[in-house]
Specification:
By secondary structure, this protein is an alpha/beta fold. It starts with 21 loop residues before the first strand and ends in a 6-residue tail after the last helix.
Length: 328
C-alpha cells in the first residue's frame, strides 16, 4: 500500500541544493540476537542527490528492503546515521512523512471501492493534497474512475498505487519494485511518469529487479550484495572494466584457433570460446579487436553469420557480483 506524502507550501531547500536528499553513513540493520543474529545491512554509506533518480539493485536478501525500511522511518538503524531531507526519519518522523511518498511492493486497497473513492479516501489524510481529478489524469486513470478496484488489471492497480503516493506533492519518492508484474506497455508508462517526476524537481529512489529499468531510468546505481554496497556509479561507470563480447557463427570449427593465432588474441588479453557453433571473443577493448577481426575476414574471404558486438552490460556485471566472480 502506498504511503502518501503531504504538501509543503514552499519548495525552497532549507540548506543548499548540494545537500543530498538522503545521506547514510555506516548503516547497520540486524535481525535477532546472539547466535541467531543476522546482519541484513552491514555498514553502508549512501548519498542520493536531490533531483536525481537513484536505483538500488541487488539479489534477493541483499539488504535493499531493510535499507528502505530504515529510510522510511519504519525501523531504527542498529548502527550508523541516517538523514532524509536533512532530518532523522525516526525522530522527526512526522516532519519527514509530510515531504516524502512511499510506494510499497503490494497494495492494500479495498476491492469494493472505486478508483475515485480510493483516491478521495487517501486525499483526506493528506494536507494540501492535489485534486483527485489531477491525480487521475497524471496516471491515465480518468476513464477508470468509476471502476471498482477489484476489476482493475495489475497495471491499473499499480498506477493507482502511484496516484496515491503522489497526492501530496512529495519532494522525495521511494519506489519499491514499482513495475513488478506489469506488462511492457504499462512498465513504460511508469517509466515516463518517473522521468517526469525528476523533470519537476522530485528526487526518486527506487529498487528494481529489472536491470533494463535501472539502465533506462537511473542517473546513478547502487548495487548491494550480502548487506554491503559493492558498486556505485552511473550505468557506464558500473560496466567499465568488464569485458565486451564479439560473437558469430561459422562452419569452420577451427576458426577460433586461427583467429587467436593470426590476431595474437591471447597476448591482447582476449578470451576465445566456442559453444554450439558460436564463437565468442571477450575483450577489454572492443573497437580495435572488432576492427582487426573484420579486416582479417575481408583479407581471408571469411563470412561471419550472426555477427554481434556489444559492450559490457549491467546484467553481466550484476551476475558476476551475484556469483562471486567480480571482486567486491
Amino acid at each position: 500500500m502506498p504511503t502518501t506524502a503531504q504538501h509543503v507550501p514552499s519548495r525552497q531547500p532549507s540548506a543548499s541544493q548540494e545537500t543530498p536528499a538522503v545521506r547514510v553513513r555506516g548503516l547497520r540493520r540486524t535481525y535477532g540476537r546472539g547466535a541467531d543474529a543476522f546482519d541484513a545491512v552491514r555498514g553502508i554509506d549512501l548519498d542520493v542527490a536531490r533531483g536525481s533518480i537513484t536505483a538500488l539493485l541487488g539479489t534477493n536478501g541483499a539488504g535493499k528492503t531493510s535499507t528502505l525500511e530504515v529510510l522510511e522511518g519504519i525501523n531504527r538503524p542498529d548502527g550508523g546515521t541516517v538523514e532524509v531531507l536533512g532530518l532523522d526519519p525516526v525522530g522527526d518522523r512526522a516532519r519527514v512523512r509530510r515531504r516524502i511518498g512511499v510506494l510499497l511492493q503490494t497494495s492494500g486497497f479495498s476491492g469494493d471501492l472505486t478508483v475515485e473513492e480510493t483516491l478521495r479516501m487517501w486525499a483526506a489524510t493528506v494536507t494540501g493534497a492535489r485534486p483527485v481529478a489531477e491525480a487521475l489524469e497524471m496516471l491515465d486513470l480518468t476513464g477508470r474512475a468509476a471502476t471498482r478496484v477489484r476489476s482493475l488489471s495489475g497495471g491499473e492497480v499499480r498506477r493507482l498505487d502511484l496516484a496515491c503516493t503522489l497526492l501530496g506533492h512529495p519532494e522525495l519518492v521511494m519506489l519499491d519494485e514499482p513495475t513488478t508484474g506489469l506488462d511492457p506497455e504499462s512498465r513504460r508508462e511508469v517509466w515516463r511518469l518517473v522521468r517526469r517526476l525528476r523533470e519537476d524537481g522530485c528526487t526518486v529512489l527506487l529498487t528494481t529487479h529489472y536491470l533494463e529499468e535501472a539502465e533506462a531510468l537511473a542517473d546513478r546505481l547502487e548495487v548491494m550484495h550480502a548487506g554491503l554496497l559493492v558498486r556505485s556509479g552511473t550505468p557506464a561507470e558500473i560496466a567499465a572494466g568488464h569485458r565486451s563480447t564479439i560473437s558469430f557463427r561459422s562452419l569452420d570449427p577451427a576458426l577460433g584457433d586461427r583467429l587467436a593465432a593470426d590476431l595474437r588474441l591471447p597476448a591482447r588479453d582476449v578470451e576465445v570460446g566456442a559453444e554450439a557453433g558460436t564463437t565468442s571473443l571477450r575483450t577489454p577493448d572492443l573497437q580495435p579487436v572488432l576492427t582487426d577481426l573484420l579486416t582479417w575476414c575481408r583479407e581471408h574471404d571469411v563470412h561471419l553469420e550472426g555477427l554481434d558486438a556489444r559492450t559490457a552490460s549491467l546484467e553481466q556485471v550484476f551476475l558476476a557480483i551475484a556469483d562471486g566472480s567480480a571482486p567486491a
